[in-house]
Structures are given as C-alpha cells and as structure tokens.
C-alpha cells in the first residue's frame, strides 16, 4: 500500500529566500500527522504544494501513490485542503454551498444532498441551514469549511490551523469528527500552534524551521532526540527552534 503522502527533497523559493529547503517526510494511511513550526517556517507553503496549488522548484510529492506534479488533476481528486482563512460564498446558505462544492466534484446530486445534510447535522448547523453564510460567526464558518472539505470523501485532508476561531465545544466536535475520519481510513496532515492538541492527537509529529525538518517521530522519539525524557511537546519544540536560531 502506498504512503498517503510522501515528500522528497522539496524546495520552494520566493526570490532569493528558500521557504522550503530540501524537505522530506512521509505519512502512512490512517494517521494524523502534526506538521509544526514557528511562523514563516514553511508549513503553509508545503501544504499548498501538496495540494497542487503552487509548484515546487524541486523535489517530488506523491499522494496515495499519485505524482502530484505529473498528475495534478488526478491527485486533487483524493485531497482536501482547508486553509486557515477559507473562502466561502457568503450569499449562499450552507446547504447551497455544499451542493455547489459537490457539483464541482461532479458528485451525484442526491448523494451529495444526503451527505451534506449529515455533515451539517453532525456539525450542529442543520437548524441554521437557511441562513446566509455571511451571517455566521467565524467558528460556524470554519465548520462549513470543514464540511466542504469532507463532502467528496477525500483520502487525505490537509488542515492549516483548523481550530482557529472555535470555542471549546466546537473544537471538541471537530476533533471528534477527525477521529471518526481517521478510524474510517482517512489521513490528516495538520498544522496548529496549539501544541497540546498536536501532542494529544498526533501519532507522529514533524517540526520544521526555516523550511527544513528539525525533528520527526512519535513523542517518545522526539523526547529521545532532544534528550528530554519527560519533556512536553512545547519544551521540545522551543528547544529545537531556539537551537536553529543560534
């Protein structure tokens, strides 16, 4: 079985600056992989390259065995990308929005309608399905964006700060939905500045700085790498980033 996502020697430059500099890692199917780093480390740029939104200058990306660079259309069929500030159509209600997104994926209309209803009910939005999205709070919009990512049943979801703007209850609901998605065989690559969430949810964690992988592994492996037998992810993260900046 191919890796859900495999990245090798990935490079992306903006002018003279390397935003991503020789990055390599892989994520097996069914795993939640936390991809962490300080602001400007190259996390979002990496996710956008995996999603096929920007082209790398060098390196290879495969998703479910599909070469993202050589076969972008095919690769995008199995990927969902949820940015930290998703674009939604404010003059639509959530049901209309999900049906529109499903249409872009050429999904069967009846199936899409059924799945959209199930997602809105699961996310606690069904009772407000007739309201325009532009009237929603940021947290509610994040829920609609998550539903939009899930509507075509992707095998890999790329989530860039998905818990931003969510209250505790909504964040718990999103985490529960991600757990269900993983249990069903899906794969998640997640960026977050909430390190406690990454420590609790992720099976493996990659930490980058200045576009390079500083450390990767389970919490036990990261502790061993950093020489902190009982350190928290925050302790390990800060130490690695500080060492790189010296």
Summarize this structure briefly.
With 246 residues, the protein is of the alpha/beta class. The protein contains 9 helices and 10 strands. The strands form 2 sheets. The protein has a 6-stranded mixed sheet, with helices on both faces.
Short descriptors:
about 250 residues, single chain, four-stranded antiparallel sheet, Rossmann fold, 9 helices, about 40% helix, alpha/beta, 2 domains, six-stranded mixed sheet
Structural description of this entry:
- With 246 residues, the protein is α/β, with parallel strands linked by helices.
- The protein folds into 2 domains: 149 residues, P-loop containing nucleotide triphosphate hydrolases (Rossmann fold, 3-Layer(aba) Sandwich); 68 residues, no CATH class.
- It is built from 9 helices and 10 strands.
- The strands form 2 sheets. It has a 6-stranded mixed beta sheet with strand order 6-7-8-3-9-10, with helices on both faces. The chain has a 4-stranded antiparallel beta sheet with strand order 2-1-4-5.
- A hairpin with a 2-residue loop joins β4 and β5.
- The chain is globular and about 55 Å long.
- The mean pLDDT is 93.
């Amino acid at each position: 079985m191919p890796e859900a996502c495999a990245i090798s020697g990935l490079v992306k430059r903006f002018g003279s600056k390397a935003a991503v500099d020789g990055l390599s890692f892989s994520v097996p199917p069914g795993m939640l992989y936390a991809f962490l780093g300080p602001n400007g480390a190259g996390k979002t740029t990496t996710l956008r390259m995996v999603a096929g939104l920007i082209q790398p200058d060098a390196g290879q990306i495969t998703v479910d065995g599909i070469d993202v660079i050589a076969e972008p259309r095919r690769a995008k069929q199995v990927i969902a990308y949820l940015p930290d500030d998703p674009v939604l159509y404010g003059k639509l209600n959530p049901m209309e929005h999900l049906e529109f997104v499903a249409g872009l994926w050429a999904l069967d209309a009846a199936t899409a309608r059924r799945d959209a209803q199930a997602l809105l009910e699961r996310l606690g939005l069904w009772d407000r399905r007739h309201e325009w999205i532009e009237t929603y709070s940021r947290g509610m919009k994040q829920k609609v964006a998550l539903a939009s990512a899930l509507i075509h049943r992707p095998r890999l979801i790329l989530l860039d700060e998905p818990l931003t703007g969510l209250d505790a209850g909504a964040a718990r609901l999103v985490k529960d939905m991600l757990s269900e998605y993983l249990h069903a065989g899906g794969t998640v690559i997640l960026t977050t500045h909430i390190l406690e969430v990454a420590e609790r949810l992720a099976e493996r964690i990659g930490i980058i700085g200045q576009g390079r992988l500083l450390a990767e592994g389970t919490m036990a492996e990261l502790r061993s790498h950093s020489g902190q037998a009982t350190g928290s992810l925050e302790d390990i993260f800060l130490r690695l980033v500080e060492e790189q900046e010296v």
